[in-house]
UniProtKB/TrEMBL annotation:
It comes from Mustela putorius furo. Residues 1-44 are annotated as: Disordered. Keywords: Glycosyltransferase, Membrane, Transferase, Transmembrane, Transmembrane helix. It is a multi-pass membrane protein. One of its GO terms (cellular component) is nuclear inner membrane. This is Probable C-mannosyltransferase DPY19L4 isoform X1. One of its GO terms (molecular function) is mannosyltransferase activity. It holds the Pfam family Dpy19. Residues 18-32 have a biased composition (Basic and acidic residues). The chain crosses the membrane at residues 89-110, 198-215, 221-239, 334-367, 387-407, 459-478, 503-520, 526-548, 560-579. It is found in: Membrane. Its main location: membrane.
Length: 760
């Protein structure tokens, strides 16, 4: 019976299957006859393989039709997303490049209005380069006059035609790589037939400033996710340009060449630290960071100190486990590569080997090798973090001391002494130290600085953004220390802006720079651009507003929606207010014709070129000597450079012409440097400074012990009058040593007698 039932059951199943297939075919025919209404495209979250598997289970041709319909709608959706993303990137890049170009054109127009450059002779144009700027540009001229590039480089590296009795490697000592590159580009591009050398030189610097602004734009854009932040960054940078850059006062300064590359490096580092970056973007950021770090190090002799602060920021970022250690240590490798390559190409510059940057990076890598793999969040892991921090600090100091013991280097003793006196650790009567302390750029920032930043609304928003980011960062750190697990991917709803590694790096870095800027005003040119970038990022970032709303526990309005609205409304309102208040001022500056008129200096330079012997050596204030070197090419006794102890000593000795010293003493000082002519400046001799005690003659009197000091030293009277006054009277013994050969309202030129004739 069982055998008989088997075939019958199988037969019944076949019949049922047949009938079902017939019914299905009838349904398909009916469906094919009736028109199918058009449906709105819907998003399909199924893959093609999932759709095919449904069809393989007998869903029929209608299912297949729906599959391809969903695929078409999905392709349209993703194409729309890609188009929107491309349009956003294109508009942002266009805005960034346009901002940089407009800023460069603005600088060019402002410079023309300020100095009337196109209407002046070459000598009058060169006089606009003041102090050390004149020295840099003079070497650019020397490179253009050289018969070949190799010969020009050799003359600069073995230069004995600038400072008397001294042969210097000007390329290494003054970081003249920008001038070398500019001279090569000027001749290689055929620009010598189109444009004058001075226009080409300042054009490159203005172009770099445009790149500077573009890099700040991109950095703020990367942090906030909207190019609106970049526009606000540029607006604040230009409005506060008195405190963001010194390009208006001194074009050839090293920082004007170097800081644009540092801004590019920061932009690349910001992208590199982002958690959601793909492989190709990460590789691009790494290459850009490597190139810009090395170029920055070659352009400025103090660049490794700034990179040292950056390395400290990355070390703290790594210490709190706020980013993968592998990424941070890849940046350390870039530092080491740039340092050693710079050491080789900067004529074995030992300053790079004894720099704190190298000691810190080597200590960090050694500490990583000694680090043990311990489970995060445990008590042992916390102890290991503290030990690792102590180990890195100890190794850094030890390695730096060892390197200075075994590596021959020029000890910048004046810098250490200056810091000791600056922070009240030491007292001194030394002229050079006190003169440096009296420089405005080395004093604490004035109240006007903070007032200007507040009037442009920059400082209030910066403080708000910094507080929110810092508190959120500390919240994340304490959670990690407590062993709590946090999501790797941060969404807008999380309201945790302090968990993003690139934000934490910038917060730490800006705090370090700001701390130094509060002590030395000159460092504000490094910090204020950071302030513009961070403030603009904050007000344009929905994550920052969402973080604030999450702390306030806002429930009346949907916090995500309100954060998105504020991230667009607040910067728009700020931008409109800045436009209304400051745009007319910028246009007025371009319309005003300023006057730069210095006929006395022009007459002095003209007399030197016409009357002085070619082999003559001039002595005077370092600032004036820089102008003489540029405008005439004559040899001088000193230069306005402050990174060389010997030049600083020369400057102090030459400045004795404004002290209460005898004619014989001054004569001995000048002849020891083989000087033939002495130039006395009436502005220094009769200086009436607002701060008594900071005039050159006051500082000289303190150094020579001719006044009562605060420590209660005894009063010492000088039996000689002030030399710069006495020499003008033309009586003995001054006329025995010096003969006046030229004078005008500002300058008195004396020939130093080789044969002393004593007159009664």
């Amino acid at each position: 019976m069982a055998d008989e039932e088997g075939p019958t059951v199988e037969l019944r199943q076949r019949k049922k299957l047949k009938s079902s297939e017939n019914k299905e075919s009838v349904k398909e025919e009916k469906i094919s006859d009736t028109p199918i209404p058009e449906r709105a495209p819907k998003r399909s979250h199924m893959t093609f393989s999932q759709h095919v598997s449904l069809d393989s289970f007998g869903c029929g041709s209608f299912k297949v039709f729906l599959v391809f319909s969903d695929l078409d709608s999905s392709e349209e959706y993703w194409s729309d997303v890609l188009f929107q993303r491309f349009a956003k990137i294109f508009i942002g890049c266009l805005a960034a490049v346009t901002s940089g170009m407009m800023y460069a054109l603005y600088l060019s127009a402002y410079h023309e209005r300020k100095f009337w450059f196109s209407n002046r002779q070459e000598l009058e144009r060169e006089i606009t380069f003041q102090g050390d700027s004149a020295i840099y540009y003079s070497y650019y001229k020397d490179m253009l006059k050289a018969p070949s590039f190799e010969r020009g480089v050799y003359e600069l590296t073995h230069n004995n035609k600038t400072v008397s009795l001294k042969t210097i490697n000007a390329v290494q000592q003054m970081s003249l790589y920008p001038e070398l590159i500019a001279s090569v580009l000027y001749q290689a591009t055929g620009s010598n037939e189109i444009i004058e050398p001075v226009y080409f030189y300042i054009g490159i610097v203005f172009g770099l400033q445009g790149i500077y602004v573009t890099a700040l734009f991109v950095t703020s854009w990367l942090m906030s996710g909207t190019w609106l932040a970049g526009m606000l960054t540029v607006a604040w940078f230009i409005i506060n340009r008195v405190d963001t850059t010194r390009i208006e006062y001194s074009i050839p300064l090293r920082e004007n060449w170097a800081l644009p590359y540092f801004a590019c490096q920061i932009a690349a580092l910001t992208g590199y630290l982002k958690s959601n970056l793909n492989t190709y973007g990460e590789r691009f950021c790494y290459l850009l960071m490597s190139a810009s770090t090395y170029t920055f190090m070659m352009m400025w002799e103090y660049s490794h100190y700034l990179l040292f602060l950056q390395a400290i920021s990355l070390f703290l970022l790594d210490s709190f486990s706020l980013e993968q250690s592998d990424k941070v240590h890849e940046v350390y490798k870039i530092y080491i590569f740039s340092l050693f390559l710079g050491y080789l190409l900067q004529f074995e510059n030992s300053a790079l080997l004894v720099s704190p940057l190298l000691s810190l990076v080597v200590a960090l890598m050694l500490a990583k090798c000694l680090q043990l793999n311990v489970k995060k969040g445990t008590f042992i892991a916390k102890i290991m973090k503290v030990i690792n921090f102590y180990l890195v600090c100890t190794l850094t100091v030890t390695l730096n001391i060892i390197m200075k013991m075994f590596v021959p280097h020029r000890e910048n003793g004046h810098m250490l002494k200056f810091l000791e006196v600056k922070f009240g650790l030491n007292m001194t009567k030394n002229f050079t130290m006190n003169w440096l302390l009296c420089q405005e750029s080395l004093q604490a920032p004035s109240q006007d600085f903070f007032l200007r930043l507040t009037q442009s609304s920059l400082l209030p928003f910066y403080i708000l953004v910094l507080i929110i980011c810092f508190l959120s960062m500390m919240q994340v750190i304490f959670r990690r220390i407590g062993g709590k697990s946090l999501k790797e991917t941060i969404t807008l709803e999380d309201g945790r802006i302090g968990g993003r590694p690139e934000i934490i790096y910038h917060v730490i870095h800006t705090i370090l720079l700001g701390s130094l800027a509060m002590v030395i005003e000159g460092l504000k040119y490094l910090w204020t651009p950071y302030v513009c970038m961070l403030a603009a990022f904050g007000v344009c970032s929905p994550e920052l507003w969402m973080t604030l709303f999450k702390w306030l526990r806002l429930r009346t309005v949907h916090p995500v929606l309100l954060a998105l609205i504020l991230s667009m409304a607040v910067p728009t309102i700020i931008g409109l207010s800045l436009w209304k208040e400051f745009f007319p001022r910028l246009m007025t500056e371009l319309m005003e014709l300023q006057e730069f008129y210095d006929p006395d200096t022009v007459e002095l330079m003209t007399w030197i070129k016409r009357q002085a012997p070619v082999a003559a050596v001039f002595a005077g204030s370092p600032q004036l000597m820089g102008a003489i070197k540029l405008c005439t090419g004559w040899m001088v006794t000193s230069l306005p450079l402050y990174n060389d102890d010997d030049l600083l000593k020369r400057n102090e000795n030459i400045y004795q012409i404004y002290s209460k010293r005898s004619a014989e003493d001054i004569y001995k000082i000048l002849t020891s440097y083989k000087a033939n002519y002495l130039i006395v400046e009436d502005a220094i001799c009769n200086e009436v400074g607002t701060t008594r005690g900071c005039r050159v003659k006051d500082l000289l009197d303190i150094a020579n012990g001719h006044v009562v000091c605060e420590e209660g030293d005894k009063l010492t009277y000088s039996k000689y009058g002030r030399f710069c006054h006495e020499v003008k009277i033309n009586y003995s013994p001054y006329v025995n040593y010096f003969t006046r050969v030229y004078w005008n309202r500002s300058y008195f030129v004396y020939k130093i007698n080789t044969v002393i004739s004593f007159q009664s």
